[in-house]
Amino acid sequence: MFLMAIQVPAGNLLQHINYPSDLKQLSENQLEQVCQELRQYIIDVVSVNGGHFAASLGVVELTVALQYVLNTPYDQLVWDVGHQAYGHKILTGRRDQFHTNRIYGGISGFPKRSESIYDTFGVGHSSTSISVALGMAVASQYKGETDRQHVAVIGDGAMTAGIAFEALNHAGIENSNLLVILNDNNMSIDPNVGALKNYLTDITTSKPYNRFRDDIANVLTKISAMGPDAFKIAKKIEKSIKGTLLKRSNFFEALQFRYFGPIDGHDVEHLVKVLKDLRDIPGPKLLHCVTTKGKGYALAEKDQTKWHAPGLFDKITGEIKKTKHEKPQPPKYQDVFGHTIIELAEQNPKIMGITPAMPSGCSLNLMMKAMPKRAFDVGIAEQHAVTFSAGLATQGLIPFCNIYSSFMQRAYDQVIHDVAIQKLNVVFCLDRAGLAGADGPTHHGAYDLAYMRCIPNMTVSAPMNEEELRNLMFTAQQDDMGPFVIRYPRGNGVMVDWQRPIKAIPVGKGRKICDGEEVAILSIGTIGNEVVKATAELNAEGYSPAHYDLRFVKPLDEALLHDVFKKFSKIITVEDGCLEGGMGSAVIEFMADNNYHANVTRLGIPDAFIEHGEQPELWAECGYDDKAIVAQVKRLATKRNHIIAS
Ligand SMILES: Cc1ncc(C[n+]2csc(CCOP(=O)(O)OP(=O)(O)O)c2C)c(N)n1
Which residue's CA is the closest to the ligand 1 atom numbered 16? Predict the structure, then answer.
């Protein structure tokens, strides 16, 4: 289904706000209405055009207050992940394009430097904001721009990642002008996990601690405002009282941040006041804002995971619109994974499941429910997920570590150093492999075939359909397989009757899909189904290319490739992955190493970042959908047995 961009009208105040300068013309007591209109606008547009939802609703007040107080774009405002930045986009020159959000050719669903000067940093992957804002703050300090503000807005989910801790650790010793706003809604996509989450809940609810801290903060803010001398005195008082007492009880204070809050992140006027006060306090500061994900849309507040990115919905009834089908439809690949891992784990007690913060995205939530002791959400912590899996594997267990292909980029060293060198039995299930769709270049799983196949000891596979995915999962959980990658895409498969008996696949063996002549098409993974469509069309027109599904890019099926190169002098490779270093490259390396001389055409993702859009739109753009494959075969092959319509 291709989405049509639908425009909707904005409210009375919002329709006159094109840039933050327009917002600043309003009085503080008008801001609440702006928030209402902004929230309504997000609901109106996302309900008909799709996209992330609950996170942006949760930061409406924060967004308005920040744009009201800060002098953006001179002041640097960095959104973490960026899925919550719809309000930011609407208030910074993109209200009229917002209906094209995430649609092919439209604006990006994430902040993007090339899109707007207000988007100070390109995001999509989480937990980068503190490092970036610190870098900006240190640069400003170096350049003598002492009046410049640098603000990172980071969620409690994103705060669970290692890089966020690394940045806090560094920022605490830099005396640069950095404000970290912790947007604490107690949720990641799924409920947030880990000890930090419990800690944040504790300090949010501990009354004596809060009163004590508020008193100190109030006094200090007042004294600081009296001038430079007073500020020095305030610093001294702070050092003696706050330093000794709070440091012991506050995590952020212990890291040499000045901690403020927790405050109500939905009280826009209070937020404005606090942000104005904080502007005048130098050094690293953290403002703890408590918000509700989905705020203002009751259903989203109630089921925040479902409304993280619900798809199209009826904004009045809250009914999520699903395309209705007469016949049963093939399942999503993620669900095939989710059900199959349980099936396998019931037979094999060594199997464990691991996800870094994507239990509902990869369907490991099914196993977490069915076998809570054997399935773990470890937070947004891809590196840890891999090395934790390595630890499990050292003890003879077989972890299935499920990570989206693009997020796995974060854990590359762990894959090599902690798993591959030690030949540990870790199964890496890479979901969202290939062009991932509307999330765009930050989320495309373009590189995994290339970055995995160069690692020694690694097996790298990609199923063409649901049955193959199940068989590869079964194959990978056998003893002594070593590190084993199975990559599969976002979206639905091609088989309605997918729950077939499972069997092992010989590692490194491809399969012939159809015989043919003159041209051979080699594919890897589910994009092979585009080849199937193309060959059907070509056969009808009198062309008969052969089609092989390689299944593995490592080890390569050398016997199959020898057959192909002996029989065919025209070869097309098709992959939903980058051309540089991918399956086509592997085939050409094989050809050179074995002294064959064929005409090889490689189809896949070119050496460019591909923007957002529906997957078929992007395959077409990159030239490897069924139509492009048909065209390539026609370019190479001679037409035979032309069927003349009677
Ligand atoms: C490195 C990385 N891993 C996983 C994700 C997927 N992801 C997107 S948003 C999100 C939850 C973020 O939670 P939080 O920071 O608390 O923001 P909220 O949605 O609650 O506002 C996750 C896990 C990601 N974007 N980047």
Answer: 157
